[in-house]
Design goal:
two-stranded antiparallel ribbon; 4 strands; 45% helix; mainly alpha
Length: 188
């Protein structure tokens, strides 16, 4: 949504968070006076994502407004607490129009900051992969060793059957009779 200094709606467009959506946004901004010398500032509720990265790389000022602050501004314009994308876009545009001096644009990143961001993202992905692998292993063990999974909840520790003094669960007899659960888990 593009508004002028008098709060008149100049243009409105729903875009996706990908390269096509970014191109659509650039075309909308160019139709309403955006230029490399005088770029139109953009307000958005998040400071992450492909769209924000592209906007920052294009050299324009991007203001990441806290969603709670947007909710407070929304209360100015509507009595109901109903949330809609259109209403949020109007509120974000009006925040920049009226209170731009109270909000800071996202700073431009140095090469060191970008490198740290890449490493932090890689570390976070590694933690997520480890957690996913742990959860898969735990799920498989829960299916095979139903009563021993309480011992595998601590990452980095061996399962109960790998510790000395604890018997490995016995397999049920092939007769089709499985017996009570405590016998299936080696506590006969």
């Amino acid at each position: 949504m593009v508004v002028d200094s008098g709060a008149r709606l100049l243009g409105k467009l729903r875009i996706s968070d990908d390269a096509v959506g970014f191109q659509d946004l650039l075309h909308l901004l160019a139709e309403h006076g955006d230029s490399p010398d005088d770029p139109i500032p953009v307000a958005i509720e998040t400071s992450r994502g492909l769209l924000v990265a592209c906007l920052r790389a294009s050299g324009r000022q991007v203001y990441a407004i806290n969603p709670m602050a947007v909710a407070r501004y929304r209360d100015r314009h509507a009595v109901s607490r109903k949330k809609s994308d259109h209403q949020d876009a109007v509120v974000l545009a009006n925040i920049l129009r009226t209170d731009i001096e109270f909000h800071r644009p996202l700073p431009s990143d140095s090469d060191l900051v970008r490198a740290i961001a890449v490493l932090a993202r890689a570390q976070q992905d590694a933690v997520w992969d480890r957690t996913r692998a742990h959860n898969r292993l735990r799920s498989h063990l829960r299916e095979y060793y139903r009563c021993r999974t309480r011992h595998t909840s601590i990452p980095g520790r061996a399962g109960a059957w790998a510790r000395p003094g604890i018997r490995k669960p016995s397999r049920p007899a092939r007769t089709g009779k499985h017996g009570p659960p405590w016998q299936r888990c080696g506590r006969a």
